[in-house]
């Protein structure tokens, strides 16, 4: 989050690059659906079906890619992904054996939890760590708050608010209008071609007190090309209401997903599907949502020790206070983080997660 300003600037620069034709006949586009090695790439307003050259699937939803045309099948342009452009960030899950790319070039990670079924602290915490590790703001959408079980879940979420997480309460099914009124100002932004609406706000940092300052038309008024809306990656365990959220925000999203999975997957079931949905709102703002599969585990084996440590906001105030400059905050004498753990400022659950993430990454 501390690099929000730089990211916003990089963001503007990256988005200045519109679709271009290179000398070799290749074109630039954006991956709007990733399904194993199959991709749907939006090139100059048309949706192409593309494959990568290698066996590995290395592009993610939201990536800018260079593609070469390969004719058309059933009027759908076909292409090959030749190159993935440099990305601002990449969200992925990993264990020791493989990686699952979720999305690239995201501006916010939206994590859906609910009053019931019971959400997993481990998964929520890992999603927050994933966001922190790439300096992208996270938003927790707390759904089904009309249920009698909501106070228990609210109490559990309070510990996340204490470490700085932003939480929005909604009833996506029971009260969709209020949910939209709360979420759209946080998630929408200027449509492509629209001038920035707010001259004062300058970045997509979520650390400000005003929720309305988060990425919503909050681009500085400079001379660079106007930015399209921020890209929101939606994550959630099964049953929390992720599909309900995506369909409320983008009417027709379910049908689009169905259509793409039928075309790209030809009946095979894969779980690596992610899709970018876009909509223009009545007020002219635009909304970009990446829908990803529900998950039951969130491996972060790719993180470095430094990324893991930095992803715990409640450690920060203590990091300078350890006796050893290279303290790992595990059992070292004179460790300020362990002191804060003993004193109750850091919870045992969070410190256990810290240790587990180091272990998962092979760093213990
Ligand atoms: N009571 C209540 N139920 C809701 C609300 N929002 C969604 N649901 C229900 O919660 C269930 C799960 O919602 P989905 O949107 O399918 O959840 P999901 O997270 O996409 O789950 P998967 O499809 O399994 O990945 C459905 O039966 C919804 O009708 C709400 O505001 N209140
Ligand atoms: Zn320490």
From TrEMBL:
Enzyme Commission (EC) number: 3.6.1.-
Cofactors required: Zn(2+)
InterPro entries recorded: G_CP_dom, NA-bd_OB-fold, P-loop_NTPase, Ribosome_biogen_GTPase_RsgA, RsgA_GTPase_dom
Binding, GTP: 236-244
Classification via Pfam families: RsgA_GTPase
Top-rank EC class of the record's enzyme: hydrolase
A single GO cellular-component term on record: cytoplasm
SUPFAM superfamilies linked to this entry: P-loop containing nucleoside triphosphate hydrolases
Subcellular location: Cytoplasm
Keywords: Cytoplasm, GTP-binding, Hydrolase, Metal-binding, Nucleotide-binding, Ribosome biogenesis, RNA-binding, rRNA-binding, Zinc
Binding site for Zn(2+): 322, 327, 329, 335
Cofactor note: Binds 1 zinc ion per subunit.
Domain annotation CP-type G: ranges: 94-298
Stretches the record annotates as Disordered: 1-23, 194-236
GO biological process: ribosomal small subunit biogenesis
Residue stretches of biased makeup (Low complexity): 194-224
Domain of life: Bacteria
Keyword Amino-acid biosynthesis included in the entry's annotation: no
Family classification: Belongs to the TRAFAC class YlqF/YawG GTPase family. RsgA subfamily.
Assembly and interaction partners: Monomer. Associates with 30S ribosomal subunit, binds 16S rRNA.
NCBIfam families, sorted: ribosome small subunit-dependent GTPase A
Protein name per the record: Small ribosomal subunit biogenesis GTPase RsgA
Natural source organism: Derxia gummosa DSM 723
Lineage: Bacteria, Pseudomonadati, Pseudomonadota, Betaproteobacteria, Burkholderiales
Protein's gene: rsgA
């Amino acid at each position: 989050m501390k690099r929000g300003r730089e990211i916003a600037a990089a963001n503007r620069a990256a988005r200045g690059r519109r679709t271009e034709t290179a000398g070799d006949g290749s074109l630039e586009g954006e991956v709007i659906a990733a399904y194993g090695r199959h991709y749907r790439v939006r090139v100059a307003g048309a949706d192409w079906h593309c494959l990568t050259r290698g066996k590995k699937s290395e592009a993610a939803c939201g990536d800018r890619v260079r593609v070469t045309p390969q004719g058309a099948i059933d009027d759908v342009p076909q292409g090959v992904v030749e190159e993935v452009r440099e990305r601002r960030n990449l969200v992925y899950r990993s264990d020791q054996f493989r990686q699952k790319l979720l999305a690239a070039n995201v501006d916010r990670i939206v994590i859906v939890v609910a009053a019931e079924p019971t959400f997993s602290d481990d998964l929520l915490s890992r999603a927050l760590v994933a966001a922190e590790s790439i300096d992208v703001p996270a938003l927790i959408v707390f759904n089904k708050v009309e249920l009698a079980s909501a106070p228990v879940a609210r109490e559990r979420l309070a510990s996340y608010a204490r470490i700085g997480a932003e939480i929005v309460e909604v009833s996506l099914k029971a009260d969709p209008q209020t949910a939209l009124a709360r979420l759209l100002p946080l998630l929408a932004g200027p449509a492509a071609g629209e001038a920035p609406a707010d001259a004062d706000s300058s970045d997509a940092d979520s650390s400000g007190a005003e929720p309305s300052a988060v990425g919503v038309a909050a681009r500085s008024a400079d001379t660079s090309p106007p930015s399209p809306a921020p890209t929101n990656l939606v994550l959630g365990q099964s049953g929390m209401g992720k599909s309900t959220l995506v369909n409320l925000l983008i009417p027709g999203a379910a049908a689009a997903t169905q259509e793409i999975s039928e075309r790209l997957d030809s009946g095979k079931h894969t779980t690596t599907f992610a899709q970018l949905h876009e909509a223009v709102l009545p007020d002219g703002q635009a909304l970009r949502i990446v829908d990803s599969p529900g998950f039951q585990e969130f491996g972060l084996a790719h993180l470095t020790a430094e990324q893991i440590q930095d992803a715990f906001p409640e450690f920060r105030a203590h990091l300078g206070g350890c006796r050893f400059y290279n303290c790992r905050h595990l059992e070292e004498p004179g460790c300020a983080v362990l002191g804060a753990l003993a004193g109750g400022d850091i919870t045992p659950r969070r410190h256990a997660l810290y240790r587990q993430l180091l272990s998962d990454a092979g760093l213990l």
